[in-house]
Specification:
The complex is a heterodimer of chains A (176) and B (140).
Chain A (H helix, E strand, L loop, with lengths): L1 H27 L9 H19 L1 E2 L4 H11 L2 H5 L1 H8 L9 E14 L3 E13 L6 E14 L2 E16 L9
Antiparallel strand pairs in A: 1-2, 2-3, 3-4, 4-5
Helix pairs in contact in A: 2-3
Chain B lengths: L1 H10 L8 H15 L1 E2 L3 H10 L3 H20 L3 E15 L2 E13 L7 E14 L2 E9 L2
Classes of the chains: A alpha+beta (176), B alpha+beta (140).
Chain lengths: 176, 140
């Protein structure tokens, strides 16, 4: 009976030491998150670079059709429901006749990234042209809340965290 | 009890990615870089350089000596308020962070403050365990 007791104590002691050792090993090595994955981050960046130009570009010649197509392809949730309101906050003139907005994404940074959601910060430039207005560029910083749907991403929220007009000097072959 | 403590340690979520300190350092750097009071300008610059590499202080900082003279002359006070920061790229002991920043500037004789919105690509390096500002480029 005494021998059985000592055997039980030994087994429990070994188990306790093993558990502590395992915990120390696990906590001493950094836990890799989804955001640590280069492939996952690149997936978000490539999506934002593909989605923002059609969402923020407008050509009076093609009208609303291209914007609606972009909304259906890249937006979900609040952005999809209030698409017109949200983009008109960024460029009030976008939907006016004879106005062209050509958007490009210069940089994208990852603020947060998890299995099913992400937050990205994008530096976006929009060249706005119209027959009457001066030739302008709007330089904006936009925070995007993304949702993973199936195997891809969609933009659920869209917040302009800063934007400033930059006056461009047109070249000879560009409209003044 | 030992075993339950061990289990607690294992299941505790960390949550933040390994590059988060670079982003945090970029936010602090941009705030320090864009916050300046003509009355405390040397102290403000010292605070910036304390969190920067020697190379930054020598190369980029040299240009500030010129613009700081105008800040003193115009009795300028600027306050930087970063509104967002995201990781663009990360390597071994180095990262590039996109930072959006709002700067409010007041000058003697100007009743209304000027508000500027800018974007910066900030390079942060890890030196002896510290995260230091190494470069800052405006995104125009």
């Amino acid at each position: 009976m005494k021998r059985l007791w000592w055997a039980l104590v030994a087994v429990l002691s070994i188990a306790a030491v093993a558990a502590v050792s395992f915990a120390v090993v696990q906590t001493s090595k950094p836990t890799e998150t989804v955001a640590d994955s280069l492939e996952e981050r690149q997936g978000v960046v490539h999506f934002v670079e593909a989605a923002l130009p059609p969402l923020l570009s407008y050509d009076a010649a093609t009208g609303d059709a291209t914007l609606t197509e972009a909304r259906d392809r890249f937006a979900t949730g609040a952005l999809r429901d209030e698409f017109r309101t949200q983009i008109s906050q960024l460029v009030p003139t976008t939907l006016e006749p004879s106005v062209t907005s050509e958007a490009t994404v210069s940089n994208v940074g990852i603020e947060a990234l998890a299995e099913t959601s992400a937050v990205a910060l994008a530096a976006v430039d929009q060249v706005i042209t119209s027959p009457t207005a001066e030739f302008h560029k709007l330089a904006s910083s936009i925070r995007l809340a993304l949702e993973r749907v199936d195997d891809g991403w969609l933009i659920a929220e869209f917040t302009v965290v800063g934007s400033e007009w930059v006056k461009l000097v047109p070249s000879d072959d560009e409209p003044a | 009890m030992i075993a339950s403590t061990a289990v607690g340690m294992i299941s505790r979520p960390t949550g933040l990615p390994s590059w988060q300190p670079y982003v945090d350092a970029a936010l602090v750097s941009i705030r320090n870089l864009s916050t300046l009071d003509y009355r405390t300008i040397e102290e403000d610059r010292r605070r910036l350089y304390d969190g920067a590499t020697r190379e930054f202080a020598m190369n980029v900082g040299a240009g500030y000596r010129y613009t700081d003279q105008y800040a003193i002359q115009d009795q300028e006070v600027s306050t930087g308020e970063p509104t967002g920061a995201g990781l663009v790229a990360v390597g071994e002991d180095i990262a590039i962070v996109l930072v959006a920043n709002t700067v409010t500037i007041t000058r003697e004789g100007s009743p209304e403050p000027t508000v500027r919105y800018n974007r910066n690509l900030v390079t942060i390096v890890r030196v002896d365990g510290d995260y230091k500002l190494d470069d800052c480029k405006a995104v125009w």
